[in-house]
Protein backbone atom coordinates (compact mmCIF):
# COMPACT_ATOMS: atom_id res chain seq x y z
CA UNK A 1 0.00 0.00 0.00
CA UNK A 2 1.44 3.38 -0.95
CA UNK A 3 1.89 6.23 1.51
CA UNK A 4 -0.85 8.19 -0.24
CA UNK A 5 -3.33 5.37 0.15
CA UNK A 6 -2.50 4.98 3.82
CA UNK A 7 -3.05 8.67 4.39
CA UNK A 8 -6.39 8.67 2.58
CA UNK A 9 -7.63 5.64 4.48
CA UNK A 10 -7.07 7.53 7.72
CA UNK A 11 -9.95 9.81 6.74
CA UNK A 12 -13.54 9.00 5.79
CA UNK A 13 -12.41 6.62 3.08
CA UNK A 14 -11.25 4.02 5.57
CA UNK A 15 -14.68 3.51 7.15
CA UNK A 16 -15.67 -0.18 7.04
CA UNK A 17 -13.01 -0.79 4.42
CA UNK A 18 -12.55 -4.37 5.63
CA UNK A 19 -16.27 -5.03 5.10
CA UNK A 20 -16.64 -3.26 1.78
CA UNK A 21 -13.49 -4.54 0.04
CA UNK A 22 -14.35 -8.24 -0.28
CA UNK A 23 -17.91 -7.44 -1.35
CA UNK A 24 -16.76 -4.98 -4.01
CA UNK A 25 -15.30 -7.77 -6.13
CA UNK A 26 -18.31 -9.97 -5.49
CA UNK A 27 -20.71 -7.25 -6.67
CA UNK A 28 -18.63 -6.39 -9.72
CA UNK A 29 -18.57 -10.04 -10.65
CA UNK A 30 -22.33 -10.41 -10.18
CA UNK A 31 -23.01 -7.28 -12.14
CA UNK A 32 -20.89 -8.39 -15.08
CA UNK A 33 -23.00 -11.56 -15.19
CA UNK A 34 -26.15 -9.40 -15.07
CA UNK A 35 -27.11 -11.29 -11.98
CA UNK A 36 -29.09 -9.81 -9.12
CA UNK A 37 -28.56 -12.79 -6.85
CA UNK A 38 -29.45 -12.15 -3.24
CA UNK A 39 -27.02 -13.70 -0.82
CA UNK A 40 -29.42 -15.39 1.56
CA UNK A 41 -30.30 -18.96 2.34
CA UNK A 42 -33.66 -19.95 0.86
CA UNK A 43 -36.15 -19.20 3.61
CA UNK A 44 -39.48 -19.37 1.81
CA UNK A 45 -42.29 -16.91 2.31
CA UNK A 46 -43.40 -15.36 5.58
CA UNK A 47 -46.68 -13.83 6.75
CA UNK A 48 -47.25 -11.41 9.61
CA UNK A 49 -50.48 -10.56 11.41
CA UNK A 50 -51.90 -7.10 10.71
CA UNK A 51 -53.22 -6.78 14.27
CA UNK A 52 -49.59 -6.55 15.45
CA UNK A 53 -49.35 -3.16 13.73
CA UNK A 54 -52.67 -1.63 14.73
CA UNK A 55 -53.72 -3.11 18.06
CA UNK A 56 -53.02 -0.98 21.15
CA UNK A 57 -53.22 -4.06 23.37
CA UNK A 58 -50.37 -5.66 21.41
CA UNK A 59 -48.43 -2.39 21.63
CA UNK A 60 -48.82 -2.46 25.44
CA UNK A 61 -47.64 -6.06 25.42
CA UNK A 62 -44.48 -4.94 23.55
CA UNK A 63 -43.89 -2.23 26.16
CA UNK A 64 -43.72 -4.75 28.99
CA UNK A 65 -42.41 -7.77 27.15
CA UNK A 66 -39.81 -6.10 24.94
CA UNK A 67 -38.82 -2.50 25.60
CA UNK A 68 -38.54 -2.83 29.37
CA UNK A 69 -36.28 -5.86 28.98
CA UNK A 70 -33.69 -4.79 26.40
CA UNK A 71 -31.03 -2.06 26.10
CA UNK A 72 -32.58 1.11 24.69
CA UNK A 73 -30.89 3.84 22.70
CA UNK A 74 -30.56 7.22 24.41
CA UNK A 75 -28.34 9.51 22.31
CA UNK A 76 -24.96 9.94 20.62
CA UNK A 77 -22.37 11.69 22.77
CA UNK A 78 -19.74 12.99 20.36
CA UNK A 79 -20.59 16.58 21.32
CA UNK A 80 -19.94 16.02 25.05
CA UNK A 81 -16.24 16.73 25.37
CA UNK A 82 -15.72 18.84 28.48
CA UNK A 83 -16.79 18.20 32.03
CA UNK A 84 -20.11 20.00 32.54
CA UNK A 85 -21.20 19.64 28.88
CA UNK A 86 -24.77 18.39 28.70
CA UNK A 87 -27.62 17.62 26.32
CA UNK A 88 -31.28 17.09 27.12
CA UNK A 89 -33.09 14.18 25.51
CA UNK A 90 -36.85 14.05 25.00
CA UNK A 91 -38.75 11.17 23.46
CA UNK A 92 -42.51 11.25 23.85
CA UNK A 93 -43.69 8.67 26.37
CA UNK A 94 -40.22 8.26 27.89
CA UNK A 95 -38.97 10.22 30.87
CA UNK A 96 -37.11 13.43 29.83
CA UNK A 97 -33.37 13.02 30.36
CA UNK A 98 -30.24 15.08 30.96
CA UNK A 99 -26.99 13.56 29.71
CA UNK A 100 -24.11 15.18 31.59
CA UNK A 101 -20.36 14.76 31.18
CA UNK A 102 -19.42 14.04 34.78
CA UNK A 103 -15.71 13.25 34.38
CA UNK A 104 -13.17 12.67 31.63
CA UNK A 105 -14.36 9.14 30.98
CA UNK A 106 -18.03 9.12 31.64
CA UNK A 107 -21.42 10.64 30.88
CA UNK A 108 -24.21 10.17 33.41
CA UNK A 109 -27.90 10.21 32.60
CA UNK A 110 -30.46 11.78 34.94
CA UNK A 111 -34.18 12.27 34.77
CA UNK A 112 -34.78 15.88 33.80
CA UNK A 113 -37.30 16.05 36.63
CA UNK A 114 -36.85 17.94 39.89
CA UNK A 115 -37.05 15.66 42.94
CA UNK A 116 -38.64 18.51 44.95
CA UNK A 117 -41.99 18.71 43.17
CA UNK A 118 -41.51 17.36 39.69
CA UNK A 119 -40.72 20.38 37.50
CA UNK A 120 -38.58 20.10 34.38
CA UNK A 121 -35.12 21.20 35.43
CA UNK A 122 -33.18 22.00 32.26
CA UNK A 123 -34.92 23.59 29.29
CA UNK A 124 -31.95 24.02 26.91
CA UNK A 125 -31.14 21.25 24.47
CA UNK A 126 -27.39 21.53 25.07
CA UNK A 127 -24.81 23.59 26.92
CA UNK A 128 -22.13 23.51 29.59
CA UNK A 129 -23.05 24.05 33.25
CA UNK A 130 -21.65 23.44 36.68
CA UNK A 131 -25.17 23.55 38.14
CA UNK A 132 -28.72 22.93 36.96
CA UNK A 133 -31.21 25.29 38.61
CA UNK A 134 -34.85 24.29 38.72
CA UNK A 135 -37.07 27.14 37.45
CA UNK A 136 -39.92 26.34 39.87
CA UNK A 137 -38.37 27.01 43.32
CA UNK A 138 -34.69 27.34 42.37
CA UNK A 139 -33.27 24.19 43.88
CA UNK A 140 -29.86 23.65 42.30
CA UNK A 141 -28.08 20.43 41.39
CA UNK A 142 -24.47 19.82 40.39
CA UNK A 143 -23.54 18.41 36.97
CA UNK A 144 -23.13 15.14 38.89
CA UNK A 145 -26.77 15.32 39.94
CA UNK A 146 -26.32 16.19 43.63
CA UNK A 147 -28.39 18.82 45.42
CA UNK A 148 -26.26 21.93 45.93
CA UNK A 149 -28.79 24.21 47.56
CA UNK A 150 -32.50 24.43 48.30
CA UNK A 151 -33.70 28.04 48.40
CA UNK A 152 -35.08 29.06 51.82
CA UNK A 153 -33.42 25.98 53.27
CA UNK A 154 -34.68 26.66 56.82
CA UNK A 155 -38.24 25.94 55.65
CA UNK A 156 -37.19 22.27 55.44
CA UNK A 157 -36.37 20.84 58.89
CA UNK A 158 -35.01 17.89 56.95
CA UNK A 159 -34.59 16.82 53.32
CA UNK A 160 -34.74 13.03 53.07
CA UNK A 161 -32.05 11.43 50.93
CA UNK A 162 -34.23 10.59 47.94
CA UNK A 163 -34.77 14.33 47.35
CA UNK A 164 -31.06 15.14 47.48
CA UNK A 165 -30.10 14.05 43.98
CA UNK A 166 -31.54 13.81 40.51
CA UNK A 167 -32.90 10.37 39.76
CA UNK A 168 -30.23 8.60 37.75
CA UNK A 169 -30.89 6.32 34.79
CA UNK A 170 -28.69 3.24 34.31
CA UNK A 171 -26.79 3.75 31.11
CA UNK A 172 -23.68 2.46 29.36
CA UNK A 173 -21.65 3.76 26.49
CA UNK A 174 -21.06 1.80 23.27
CA UNK A 175 -20.10 3.07 19.78
CA UNK A 176 -20.11 6.66 21.12
CA UNK A 177 -23.79 6.29 22.00
CA UNK A 178 -25.51 5.88 25.34
CA UNK A 179 -27.80 2.94 25.97
CA UNK A 180 -30.28 2.62 28.79
CA UNK A 181 -29.82 -0.64 30.65
CA UNK A 182 -32.98 -2.42 31.85
CA UNK A 183 -33.57 -2.46 35.60
CA UNK A 184 -33.33 -6.21 35.83
CA UNK A 185 -31.33 -7.27 32.76
CA UNK A 186 -31.05 -10.91 31.73
CA UNK A 187 -27.41 -11.91 31.05
CA UNK A 188 -28.22 -12.26 27.33
CA UNK A 189 -29.28 -8.64 27.30
CA UNK A 190 -26.11 -7.19 28.80
CA UNK A 191 -24.59 -4.69 26.38
CA UNK A 192 -21.58 -6.97 25.76
CA UNK A 193 -23.77 -9.89 24.73
CA UNK A 194 -26.34 -7.76 22.96
CA UNK A 195 -23.83 -6.35 20.47
CA UNK A 196 -21.28 -9.20 20.43
CA UNK A 197 -22.07 -10.38 16.89
CA UNK A 198 -21.85 -6.93 15.34
CA UNK A 199 -19.32 -5.22 17.60
CA UNK A 200 -16.44 -5.47 15.08
CA UNK A 201 -18.45 -3.83 12.29
CA UNK A 202 -19.81 -1.05 14.47
CA UNK A 203 -16.28 -0.39 15.72
CA UNK A 204 -15.02 -0.31 12.12
CA UNK A 205 -17.42 2.56 11.40
CA UNK A 206 -15.42 4.57 13.94
CA UNK A 207 -18.20 6.68 15.49
CA UNK A 208 -15.67 8.29 17.82
CA UNK A 209 -13.98 9.79 14.74
CA UNK A 210 -17.22 11.35 13.54
CA UNK A 211 -18.86 14.67 14.33
CA UNK A 212 -22.58 15.36 14.47
CA UNK A 213 -23.62 17.45 11.46
CA UNK A 214 -27.30 17.77 12.34
CA UNK A 215 -30.26 15.82 13.65
CA UNK A 216 -33.84 15.65 12.47
CA UNK A 217 -36.98 14.55 14.17
CA UNK A 218 -40.25 13.55 12.54
CA UNK A 219 -43.35 12.01 14.03
CA UNK A 220 -44.48 9.26 11.69
CA UNK A 221 -48.11 8.15 11.84
CA UNK A 222 -47.28 4.46 11.64
CA UNK A 223 -46.35 1.48 13.77
CA UNK A 224 -42.62 1.26 14.51
CA UNK A 225 -42.33 -2.20 12.90
CA UNK A 226 -43.54 -0.92 9.52
CA UNK A 227 -40.71 1.62 9.58
CA UNK A 228 -38.02 -0.87 10.52
CA UNK A 229 -39.32 -3.37 7.96
CA UNK A 230 -39.00 -0.72 5.28
CA UNK A 231 -35.32 -0.11 6.00
CA UNK A 232 -34.28 -3.76 6.16
CA UNK A 233 -35.41 -4.66 2.68
CA UNK A 234 -34.09 -3.34 -0.58
CA UNK A 235 -36.96 -4.66 -2.65
CA UNK A 236 -38.89 -1.36 -2.58
CA UNK A 237 -36.01 0.84 -3.74
CA UNK A 238 -36.40 0.34 -7.51
CA UNK A 239 -40.13 1.11 -7.23
CA UNK A 240 -40.71 3.66 -4.49
CA UNK A 241 -37.44 5.51 -5.10
CA UNK A 242 -37.31 5.08 -8.86
CA UNK A 243 -36.75 8.80 -9.41
CA UNK A 244 -34.62 9.54 -6.33
CA UNK A 245 -32.27 6.72 -5.33
CA UNK A 246 -32.61 4.15 -8.11
CA UNK A 247 -30.63 6.06 -10.80
CA UNK A 248 -27.48 5.96 -8.63
CA UNK A 249 -27.70 2.21 -8.00
CA UNK A 250 -26.68 -0.96 -9.74
CA UNK A 251 -30.13 -2.33 -10.47
CA UNK A 252 -31.33 -4.40 -7.56
CA UNK A 253 -28.01 -5.99 -6.74
CA UNK A 254 -27.53 -6.27 -2.99
CA UNK A 255 -26.59 -8.61 -0.21
CA UNK A 256 -28.57 -9.44 2.94
CA UNK A 257 -26.76 -10.76 5.99
CA UNK A 258 -27.56 -11.22 9.63
CA UNK A 259 -25.34 -11.19 12.71
CA UNK A 260 -27.29 -12.77 15.56
CA UNK A 261 -30.41 -10.57 15.90
CA UNK A 262 -28.89 -7.70 13.91
CA UNK A 263 -28.98 -7.32 10.13
CA UNK A 264 -27.14 -5.72 7.24
CA UNK A 265 -27.85 -4.76 3.63
CA UNK A 266 -24.90 -3.97 1.37
CA UNK A 267 -25.48 -2.27 -1.96
CA UNK A 268 -23.08 -1.24 -4.71
CA UNK A 269 -23.47 2.14 -6.40
CA UNK A 270 -23.23 2.72 -10.10
CA UNK A 271 -19.54 3.54 -10.44
CA UNK A 272 -18.18 0.79 -8.22
CA UNK A 273 -16.40 -1.15 -10.98
CA UNK A 274 -14.69 1.97 -12.33
CA UNK A 275 -13.61 3.14 -8.90
CA UNK A 276 -12.43 -0.34 -7.93
CA UNK A 277 -10.13 -0.30 -10.93
CA UNK A 278 -8.87 3.28 -10.84
CA UNK A 279 -8.87 4.30 -7.17
CA UNK A 280 -9.44 1.14 -5.11
CA UNK A 281 -8.99 2.98 -1.80
CA UNK A 282 -12.17 4.91 -2.64
CA UNK A 283 -14.58 1.99 -2.95
CA UNK A 284 -16.26 3.07 0.29
CA UNK A 285 -17.62 6.04 -1.69
CA UNK A 286 -19.37 3.66 -4.08
CA UNK A 287 -21.02 1.29 -1.63
CA UNK A 288 -23.72 1.68 0.98
CA UNK A 289 -24.22 -0.37 4.14
CA UNK A 290 -27.48 -0.28 6.08
CA UNK A 291 -27.51 -1.94 9.48
CA UNK A 292 -30.33 -2.92 11.76
CA UNK A 293 -29.27 -2.76 15.38
CA UNK A 294 -32.10 -4.89 16.67
CA UNK A 295 -34.83 -3.95 17.07
CA UNK A 296 -35.30 -0.23 16.31
CA UNK A 297 -32.05 1.45 15.24
CA UNK A 298 -31.04 1.84 11.60
CA UNK A 299 -27.47 2.82 10.83
CA UNK A 300 -26.60 3.91 7.32
CA UNK A 301 -23.04 4.14 6.02
CA UNK A 302 -23.54 6.42 3.03
CA UNK A 303 -20.76 7.57 0.68
CA UNK A 304 -20.17 10.88 2.46
CA UNK A 305 -21.92 10.53 5.79
CA UNK A 306 -23.11 8.08 8.39
CA UNK A 307 -26.56 8.29 9.95
CA UNK A 308 -28.15 6.75 13.02
CA UNK A 309 -31.96 6.65 12.96
CA UNK A 310 -33.83 5.83 16.12
CA UNK A 311 -37.48 4.76 15.91
CA UNK A 312 -39.18 5.26 19.22
CA UNK A 313 -42.67 3.73 19.49
CA UNK A 314 -45.21 6.21 20.87
CA UNK A 315 -48.43 4.29 20.26
CA UNK A 316 -49.66 1.48 18.01
CA UNK A 317 -49.89 3.92 15.11
CA UNK A 318 -47.33 6.56 15.98
CA UNK A 319 -43.52 6.48 15.99
CA UNK A 320 -41.07 9.24 16.75
CA UNK A 321 -38.15 9.07 14.33
CA UNK A 322 -34.92 10.85 15.09
CA UNK A 323 -32.04 10.77 12.63
CA UNK A 324 -28.53 11.87 13.60
CA UNK A 325 -26.26 12.68 10.64
CA UNK A 326 -22.50 12.41 11.12
CA UNK A 327 -19.47 13.17 9.00
CA UNK A 328 -16.03 11.70 9.50
CA UNK A 329 -13.52 14.16 10.96
CA UNK A 330 -11.28 13.35 7.99
CA UNK A 331 -14.02 14.60 5.64
CA UNK A 332 -14.25 18.04 7.14
CA UNK A 333 -12.55 19.62 4.15
CA UNK A 334 -15.35 18.28 1.93
CA UNK A 335 -18.16 19.17 4.34
CA UNK A 336 -20.31 20.68 1.58
CA UNK A 337 -20.29 17.41 -0.34
CA UNK A 338 -21.28 15.62 2.88
CA UNK A 339 -24.13 18.06 3.45
CA UNK A 340 -25.45 17.41 -0.06
CA UNK A 341 -25.23 13.67 0.63
CA UNK A 342 -27.39 14.17 3.74
CA UNK A 343 -29.99 16.30 1.90
CA UNK A 344 -30.15 13.87 -0.99
CA UNK A 345 -30.98 11.03 1.37
CA UNK A 346 -33.45 13.08 3.41
CA UNK A 347 -35.65 13.45 0.31
CA UNK A 348 -35.75 9.69 -0.21
CA UNK A 349 -36.45 9.19 3.50
CA UNK A 350 -39.51 11.38 3.19
CA UNK A 351 -40.74 9.14 0.34
CA UNK A 352 -40.45 6.21 2.74
CA UNK A 353 -42.31 7.96 5.56
CA UNK A 354 -45.18 9.05 3.33
CA UNK A 355 -45.58 5.57 1.85
CA UNK A 356 -45.52 3.95 5.29
CA UNK A 357 -48.11 6.35 6.71
CA UNK A 358 -50.36 5.33 3.83
CA UNK A 359 -49.77 1.65 4.62
CA UNK A 360 -50.71 2.21 8.27
CA UNK A 361 -53.98 3.92 7.28
CA UNK A 362 -54.81 1.07 4.94
CA UNK A 363 -54.07 -1.62 7.51
CA UNK A 364 -56.41 0.05 9.98
CA UNK A 365 -59.41 -0.14 7.64
CA UNK A 366 -58.60 -3.10 5.43
CA UNK A 367 -60.34 -6.45 5.82
CA UNK A 368 -57.01 -8.23 5.22
CA UNK A 369 -55.59 -10.20 8.15
CA UNK A 370 -51.95 -10.57 7.20
CA UNK A 371 -49.04 -9.35 5.06
CA UNK A 372 -46.72 -11.37 2.82
CA UNK A 373 -42.91 -11.29 2.59
CA UNK A 374 -40.69 -13.02 0.03
CA UNK A 375 -37.03 -14.02 0.18
CA UNK A 376 -35.84 -10.52 -0.73
CA UNK A 377 -37.54 -9.53 2.54
CA UNK A 378 -35.95 -12.25 4.63
CA UNK A 379 -34.47 -9.86 7.21
CA UNK A 380 -38.07 -8.97 8.09
CA UNK A 381 -39.04 -12.54 8.88
CA UNK A 382 -35.89 -12.78 11.00
CA UNK A 383 -36.88 -9.56 12.79
CA UNK A 384 -40.25 -11.08 13.66
CA UNK A 385 -38.73 -14.37 14.82
CA UNK A 386 -36.27 -12.50 17.04
CA UNK A 387 -39.04 -10.32 18.47
CA UNK A 388 -41.18 -13.38 19.18
CA UNK A 389 -38.26 -15.06 20.98
CA UNK A 390 -38.24 -12.20 23.50
CA UNK A 391 -41.97 -11.48 23.63
CA UNK A 392 -43.05 -15.12 23.86
CA UNK A 393 -40.00 -17.00 25.16
CA UNK A 394 -42.03 -20.14 25.85
CA UNK A 395 -44.47 -19.67 23.01
CA UNK A 396 -47.14 -19.36 25.74
CA UNK A 397 -48.75 -16.16 24.56
CA UNK A 398 -49.20 -17.56 21.09
CA UNK A 399 -52.95 -17.84 21.30
CA UNK A 400 -53.50 -14.46 22.83
CA UNK A 401 -51.43 -12.39 20.46
CA UNK A 402 -50.71 -14.34 17.30
S1 LIG B 1 -39.91 21.63 41.73
FE1 LIG B 1 -37.86 22.10 41.46
S2 LIG B 1 -37.37 23.46 43.00
FE2 LIG B 1 -39.41 22.96 43.35
FE1 LIG C 1 -36.67 3.55 1.18
TrEMBL record:
Keywords: 2Fe-2S, Iron, Iron-sulfur, Metal-binding, Oxidoreductase
GO MF entries: 2 iron, 2 sulfur cluster binding; iron ion binding; oxidoreductase activity
PROSITE patterns: RIESKE
Cofactor(s) it depends on: Fe cation
Presence of the UniProt keyword Zinc in the record: no
Record-annotated Rieske domain positions: 71-180
Protein known as: Iron-sulfur protein
Amino acid sequence: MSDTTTRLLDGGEGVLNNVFSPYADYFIDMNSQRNSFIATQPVGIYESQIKHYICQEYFNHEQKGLWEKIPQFIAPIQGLENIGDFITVDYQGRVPMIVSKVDNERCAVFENVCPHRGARIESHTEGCKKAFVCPYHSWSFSHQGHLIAARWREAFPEIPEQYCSLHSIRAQQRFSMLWQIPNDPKPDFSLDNWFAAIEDQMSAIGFEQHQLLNSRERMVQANWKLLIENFIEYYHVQSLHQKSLAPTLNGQLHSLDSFAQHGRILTPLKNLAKVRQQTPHKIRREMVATYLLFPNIIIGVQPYHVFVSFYHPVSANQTCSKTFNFIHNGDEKIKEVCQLDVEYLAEALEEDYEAIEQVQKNLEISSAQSLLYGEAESLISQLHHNLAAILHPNGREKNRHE
